[in-house]
Amino acid sequence: MDFRKKIIKTNANDIGIDVQVFESISDVVDVTLCINPTLQCMKRQCAECGIHKLYLLPEETGDAETDETVKWEKFEKVEIKAKGNKTTKKLVLVKKESKVSDLFSHFLQLLKSFPFHQHRATWQNNQFQELSSNLPLNHCICVHDFSENYRCTELKQLQSAYFQKTEVSVHVTIIHRHALPNIDGVESTEQNPEIITEHFFVISDDQQHDQYFVHEVRKTISEYLASISYPVDTMHEFTDGCAAQYKSRHCFGDISNSSRDFGFKHFTRNYFETAHAKGPQDAAGGLLKRQADLAVLRGQAHIQNARDHLQIYHECVNVQKIGQVRHHEMVKETNNTFDVEEDDEEVPLSEMVSKGQVAGDSFL
Known about the structure:
By secondary structure, the protein is an alpha/beta fold. Helices cover 35% and strands 22% of the residues.
C-alpha cells in the first residue's frame, strides 16, 4: 500500500474517485467477496464477486504512460547445489526488480486462491477446538509433529567435533483423552467430561523420517494407551501435510491398516492447512531440546546419542515440565502388504493428496 499512497499523494488532483487504502490483507479480500460470502464466493465460483471488484490505478496495472520499476520479493523454488555434486530444489525468498504491473499481476493471482485457503484454515481450527472440548467417550486425539533434529553437544569438546555433530530425531505427539480414575484421580463421564492433555515424545537415532518411523510412533502410543487401560474406539489424528511423513501413497497404505494393527473401530487423519500447523507441539519440542541444552551448559550431562538424550530427563530435568518419560526400543518394520477387495474403488493419488482428511473403519 506504500506504492498506492505515493501515487495518491503525487496525483491527488488527477485521481477523480475515492481510492481505498487498505490496512490489512483481510480488507483486500473483503472487497473481492460478496457482503455475505458463501462457499462459492470463497472458491471464486460466484458470478457476483471476484478479483475484478478490486479497483487498481492505471499506475498499478501498467496502463500508465510511464511504468515505474519496483523492488519486491517472492518465494520461488530454485535449484541449489548439494553434497556430491547434486542439485536439489528449495523454496527460497527471491528478490525481484520489475515493472509495477508484474507485482500487482502476481498479487492478483495469489488473491484468487487466498480466501478459500483462509476459510479452510479457520474452519479447521474451529473444528479442532470443538472436538477437543467436546471429545466423546472412548475417543482420543493425537497431534503429531516432527520437531527439528537435536544436535548433540558437549560442554568440552574437540574442535573437529563441532563439524561432526550427531543429530537425534525428536517426534512430538499431543494426546487428548478422557481422565481415568486409577491414573488421573478423577473420572470423566458424559455429563462431566474431564479432558487430559499429555505430551508424548519419541527420541531416536534414526534419521529417516518416513512412514515407518511414524508407524512405530503410533504403535508405541497405542501400547501406552493399552497399558493405562484407556479404551479407544475412534482415533483422531492431526498432522501437517509433509509427504514423506504423513501424506503420500505409502502413508495412506499404512493408515489403511490402522484398524487391523491397533484395533481401532474408526480412524481419521486430518491434515492442517498449509502453514497453519503450528501449535503446542512445536513449543513442546522446543522445551525438550532447551532442557537438554541447559543440562549440558550446567555440566550435568554429556549428550552423544539418543540414549544420552533420554537419560538426562531421568537424572537432571524436572519431569513435571515435560510429562512422563519412558524408555522404548523402536524397531522399524517394513510392511507393504495391503488388503485389497475386488469392490474397492480406485481413487487417483492426486485427488487423495488434495484432501484434508482420510478416514477408515473396521469391517471385522
